Transcriptional repressor
Amino acid sequence: MPATLDFEQMLRGAALRVTRPRVAVLGAVLAHPHADTDSIIGAVRRGLPEVSHQAVYDSLQTLTAAGLVRRIQPAGSVARYESRVGDNHHHMVCRSCGLIADVDCAVGDAPCLTASDDDGFSVDEAEVVFWGRCPGCSTAGSSRST
């Protein structure tokens, strides 16, 4: 995980003011990919106990708007945050436990950024969510049925 100075450089590189909550939130998101807001608040408070919920929410919004953090929200899930940005990756979501895993660009007949009919849009990002059961849940399900 990058050091605090690296987080400060990332914030400055995005033309953001360096604040303790922003540094702490950036560190928490990097350490806990796909974490929800409550989990991020908990992680931030371990190192910065006095931080308010609002400071964390504001930091997440600012970091997302600056492109340092990505907000995802699979159907039926609360918003989650990740530090992997700018590469148009996708996600796998386990229907049983909710685990979320990164998936590099979808492959197959149609490239992931090519819509069959773009209706005149200039497409710059595609969001694909694959649903299924993670290995742990698949194994647990098959051992229960035997």
